[in-house]
Amino acid sequence: MGFPGGVFEDLDQSLRDTAQRECKEEIGLSLVEEGQYMGALTRMNHPKISVDAFVYTLDRDQQLIPNEEVAGLYWLSLDTLRDGQNRSTIQHRFQGKDRAFPAIEIADVPVPIWGISLGFIDQLFHRWSL
Fold this sequence. Notes:
By secondary structure, the chain is an alpha+beta fold. It has helices at about 15-25, 30-35, 80, 115-125, and strands at about 35-40, 45, 50, 55-60, 85-95, 95-105, 115.
């Protein structure tokens, strides 16, 4: 489970431009036209990648149109993401060892939210009182 994103390209003037472009390409949402920029979250690192995230709010529901890179879309309320009853632990093999990782598991969503995605969600709640 992840958020729209991708790699910086020559046409991008900044990583924020990359995020805006990828969001438009992957789910058909123009953050430039429809979103209000709140700010950037702290970069998160994984052994293979570094990821930057940018937060926007929307004033109204948007019709999302996924491209071929997107297997499914889910609108989740902030209350659902914050609800401690949705917190769990999942088992995942990492660096050759089975390990337990914190996660969010929601009944109607077929995969857990964990790793970098969960890290960004936790940062969001820590940084802003939403």
